[in-house]
Amino acid sequence: MSELLTAIGLLFFLEGLLLAIFPSRIKSMLEIIKNTSEKTLRSFGATFLIIGFLIIWYIKS
After folding, report:
1. 45/25 Cα distance (integer angstroms)
2. Which of 47, 52, 56, 57 holds its CA 20 to 30 A away from the CA of 6?
3. What is the pTM of this model?
């Protein structure tokens, strides 16, 4: 359970860091995402999900 909380804390830290350092870039990226098709976003999401799973699996084994 503590590993999960650590991972969530790290996620919040990185998100906050990016928003604090690059606010205008984040806004332009959100505009690009808004104009991207759902199929493309779903593909990117699935790809990142698999990559994240493989990284965690590699670390844990």
Report:
1. 20
2. 47
3. 0.70
